[in-house]
Amino acid sequence: MVKTYWNVPKLNFVTKPDQSGILVIVYYLNQQQLTVNLNFEILKNNNFKIMILVNLIGQSQLHLTTTQNHLEANSTSDLLCKATVDQDSRFSYYGKVVINKAANQAHAYQRNENLILDSGSTIVSEPSLEIKANDVFCTHGSFTSYLDPLELYYLQTRGLSLCAAEKLLTKGFLLSGLDKLLIEPVITVSRLENLRQQVGHYLLSNH
Amino acid sequence: MATPVSDTHTQQWQFRFGSQYTLNAKKGLDYQLIHKLSLQKKEPDWMLKIRLQAYEIFKQKKLPRWGANLSELDFKNIFYYLKPHAAQVRRWEDLPSDIRQTYDYLGIKDAEKNFLAGVSAQYESEVLYKSIQKNLSEQGVIFLDTDTALKKYPDIFKQYFGKLVPAADNKFAALNTAVWSGGSFVYIPEGVKVDLPLQAYFRINAENMGQFERTLIIAEKNSSVHYIEGCSAPIYSTASLHSAVVEIFVQEGAQVRYTTIQNWSPNVYNLVTKRAQVQARASMQWIDGNLGSKVTMKYPSCHLVGQGARGEVLSLAYAANSQHQDAGAKMLHLADNTTSRIISKSVCKQGGRTSYRGLNYIKKGAKNCQTKVICDALIMDEKSRSDTYPTMKIDEQRAKVEHEATVSKVSEEQLFYLQSRGLTQERAQSLIVNGFLEPIIKELPLEYAVEINRLISLQMEGSVG
């Protein structure tokens, strides 16, 4: 099962037992403000990949809360949220992983990667783990940085303008998340390529 | 309310010997007590004024709504000031025998003999025993209890006291400012490097006794010091409160390392405010071990205010028997090229709960800052719980912020392997836990590292099955 969502303000996704799938959730905001709640209820023998891609420009603000709620045993959820903020925008991310008492053998992963593209933009990242079972493996990570000046310099030596180099690196950063889905059995190569183009077009329509 | 404790715990903590107090003040806090306390300490008027203002703030401030459960904390049922019957003495032999007996149990005398530069032992609310090696005084280093420092060096004291942790900071900082008593005062003059660690042994020894130490460390330009504070408290039936404030000023190019091992008995509320201000090219390192207490809320912080300042926190938390260790760190990057690192390791078992709570803040305009947080947690059984609540607030583009956290149980493969090499399951588990905590323990002075390794092995006994 592969599902895509575009700028959804709210999502309460309840899986079925023994189900696997990929969820791709995309936000592109230009001069907009949005508060989003995404709730994922993970049941027995589930294996879900959740990919959230965000591009904010023109003083936009996105307040995003995600909850990976592991309710039953032997379940896996892997959430990756990648965001770029430009033109005085603000991205606040609150990512929660909850492992209930009954959810032993749970594997829960959460990762938030952000790129700040101009001096006026800001990021708040608050990942949290609440673990009430003991036989689990959970990790979360959060990384925030800016475009590497050496990479920009290299691309310019190859003939790209600074602006084009920035666009290329930003696009690469956002879409690289999708490449990781290639090993998933639920998605084919052609479907993934299709998804890449769709998401790329939606996210970077201003470019 | 009494905390149920196991037999092992009772044995571990049962080493209190009776003491006599000069001023057996009544429980609870009011203006009269603060006046009395200040009068007895023969303090200047300005300090009494600060205390009274802080008491006003304390009454107005509410308990924090986040973090550990403090609802059982009864402020009316606590002694706020007790003074041991002995006056301050210089030599160990001059200490009253009952106090000496308790310290002997803790091994403080041997520790001093073998290793320490100076000992300032806190017995109840008053520092009784202190000895500073001659060469330290010759270098101009001041290492006193905070009460004496106020009398002897009022100018330095007034310049720094409450400047980093003002009374209005939080309810417990206000309480501490109102009733503070004892603690250490360390002043390192410019360019002086103190080779041996300075150490204070803290000790609570009266039922329902609140300890409100106030520690002030000032490291002038290009100086360096390592300060060690260790706690140990015997067992009581009702909850006790420990609420210290530590302020550290690290001036340009100076280096300060502050090591704490908190090992309060399992009925103590340990609610501490610790903060350091780090100037240009200076470095501050907090090493924080939380083993005991009923509830701990402690977040050592570094305000990196000068260019190129560095802050580091190594935090270790161990929670068992319904303990809640809510520990973490705060790094505020307020100047260019500042760097920081937080490493937190926690273990919870037998219904214990460990939480990491932290803040990494990059101020707008503070360029090329780097900060990294690593927190790892081990959950030993199904009754225990572990949480991670980090916050990263980045208001500047040119910043690199990293955070990673892992929570897991002891790996079956590792256990199986060690057992296949002939170790019992118990021994294997304790070996794995010690290995897990190794990155922090190796930073501790040797005697503490040995103590903690032993303590963890002891705690692991009977934890299998």
Automatic annotation (TrEMBL), chain A:
A Pfam family the protein falls into: SUFBD_core
Biological process per Gene Ontology, one example term: iron-sulfur cluster assembly
Segments forming domain SUF system FeS cluster assembly SufBD core: 47-173
InterPro entries for this protein: Fe-S_cluster_assembly_SufBD, SUF_FeS_clus_asmbl_SufBD_core, SUF_FeS_clus_asmbl_SufBD_sf
Top-level taxon of origin: Bacteria
Protein name, as recorded: SUF system FeS cluster assembly SufBD core domain-containing protein
Organism name: Candidatus Roizmanbacteria bacterium RIFOXYA1_FULL_41_12
From TrEMBL, chain B:
Domain SUF system FeS cluster assembly SufBD core: 202-436
Protein name: Fe-S cluster assembly protein SufB
Alphabetized InterPro entries for the sequence: Fe-S_cluster_assembly_SufBD, SUF_FeS_clus_asmbl_SufB, SUF_FeS_clus_asmbl_SufBD_core, SUF_FeS_clus_asmbl_SufBD_sf, SufBD_N
PANTHER family per the UniProt record, alphabetical: FES CLUSTER ASSEMBLY PROTEIN SUF (PTHR30508), UPF0051 PROTEIN ABCI8, CHLOROPLASTIC-RELATED (PTHR30508:SF1)
GO terms for biological process, alphabetical: iron-sulfur cluster assembly
Alphabetized Pfam families for the sequence: SUFBD_core (PF01458), SufBD_N (PF19295)
SUPFAM superfamilies xrefs: Stabilizer of iron transporter SufD
SUF system FeS cluster assembly SufBD N-terminal domain sequence ranges: 38-199
Entry similarity comment: Belongs to the iron-sulfur cluster assembly SufBD family.
